[in-house]
Amino acid sequence: GCKSKASGVADVGATPQLFTGTGALICEFKQGWLTEVEGGLEVVDALAVAGGRIAQGLLRYEALAIRGSTELLPSGQRVDLTSAAATEATLVDQEANLAEINSIFLANGSTLSIDVYVGTDPIHGLIEIPLMDWTAPVLGVDEGSIDLSDPVGARSSLAVLEAAAASVDEDRGWVAATRDLLEVHHERLSIDLELCGELVDPAAPEPVVPPPDRSVVTESQLDNLDDGRAAIQIVEVTLDAIEEVIGDLRWVVEQGTDPALPASERAVLGDGYQVLEPLVDVLADSCSYGGIDLCNGSTPSVELHWGTGNVDGVDRITVSLPDLSTIALGIDAGSVDLTTVAGSEAALAQIDAALAVLWGEASELFLLEQGLDALQGAIEDGL
Asked: Is the predicted pLDDT of residue 5 greater than 90, yes or no?
């Protein structure tokens, strides 16, 4: 249905149309206009409070989307995020529907504006206070519009939430500007009424509306970095364990390079290699974080979301993951021949190449950890 336009807030009767009249009548009109101005201040103050609460709610909502945008989020936590997002959508609606004065709802779209008369001039004697529609569906942040069930959906939702927050911030700017205008008219009418012999109380002080607390966003950013560190540490532990196994394999292979090794012992070397070699794959397959395999090649890379936006290469970093399977390292039993000296020497070169891969991966992870530390410092410094 059509949205209505409320005229005035205070019960001052019909707006007087002053063209001529005695001084006493003029004073009476100005008293009525002052009452309307005071009612208008009450409206914008209620909007300011509601807007501050909704802005904070959207920031909490945004923090959930940032958390959900990283690919290293444990699956159990993602379920919790979805539930928390539904709660935030409900809270936004509640705040929008609670903003009300004299049965006029100020922030749910049921009323477009309120007219406050401050004089007889048809243009400058009327202040139109725009009312808001900060309900979740209109802002696009209702439960059906936000999807944190996977990183892709969370990133899209983050963009929606940022747009909603920007819209509310713009509206709050209009509310603040309207209050400034009403204060000007309150001061003007107060001076006029003092000339009429009336004592006028100062305008009600502006309510204290604290700026949105961004620590909730910072916490999500740091939690995402912590997930990255935890995954890196798991890979590092796996690298160390695989390096130890490959060191044992190298010892076995090195024995085969001895030309004087009897054939019977050479056969035992092959058996020993086949016993040790599967341990590498066991370690690689057991390397995981949050249900994501990190070391067996099934996940080539993951995107770690650390920023507050949704820009590739700016708000996310790509973490390349190693493939530490024996086939990828070139040391699987099928690729190694220890039945001859030449085969053993070739196998030794393969083993050394595999160790070099491990050391290279370890260096890359060290640099990545330093990068995450630098990002944490930047986040904590508010950059």
From this structure: no
